[in-house]
Write a structure and sequence with these properties.
Length: 198
């Protein structure tokens, strides 16, 4: 989740959203739903985005909005369902190195009461990785002001394809820093999931 706003308002909104999504209080976590077994299951990604949209617009009433990419991954099958709301397209890097971008875009959360969100589905095979990133990654600019974009990110991911885990993330960040020779124009954050199979 990436909160766009100003100063203290943005910080307070981030803290409130963290409370709504905290694992320490699953009965109050907006991303969870009570299961028949007594435990908790993940709420469908598109329903979570709609719920967060209502909470921000109706309960928080702040002049900030949220972009997010939220994914639910089945660790047995590799099935992924996700929602993209104002965030860059999530990427799947297949075990052979090829890159696929998921989704068709989506409105940020907390801007429009009419917003709806689309669920995107994919399947990871053993050796594939799912990469979720903030727009600071694809919008990183070189000295000429040219953003990295999806093609540039795909090129970096392919160069790092033989690495795994933290080494992959560190190499990716190193290449990204090399491209953006000045400061990043926006925050840079990402989540990487490497699927090994059941």
């Amino acid at each position: 989740i990436d909160v766009s706003g100003h100063g203290i308002t943005s910080a307070l909104m981030t803290a409130r959203l963290a409370g709504y999504l905290s694992g320490s209080s699953p009965d109050q976590n907006l991303a969870l739903v009570q299961a028949d077994t007594g435990g908790f299951d993940a709420l469908a990604p598109e329903i979570l985005a709609e719920r967060l949209n209502r909470v921000i617009l109706n309960d928080m009433q702040v002049e900030s909005y949220v972009t997010l990419a939220y994914a639910d991954l089945n660790l047995e099958t590799g099935d992924v369902s996700l929602v993209q709301a104002g965030h860059p397209y999530p990427a799947i890097q297949r075990s052979g190195g090829m890159i696929e971008y998921l989704g068709r875009g989506g409105l940020p959360v907390g801007l429009f009461d009419f917003a709806t969100y689309e669920r995107v589905e994919a399947r990871l095979a053993p050796g594939d990785r799912l990469f979720l990133m903030s727009d600071g990654v694809t919008e990183a600019e070189n000295t000429g002001g040219l953003p990295l974009g999806e093609d540039g990110l795909a090129d970096i991911m392919k160069r790092c394809a033989d690495l795994r885990g933290p080494a992959y993330v560190e190499a990716l960040l190193w290449h990204l820093s090399g491209y953006a020779t000045d400061e990043f124009v926006d925050d840079v954050s990402a989540a990487l999931v490497e699927f090994r199979g059941p």
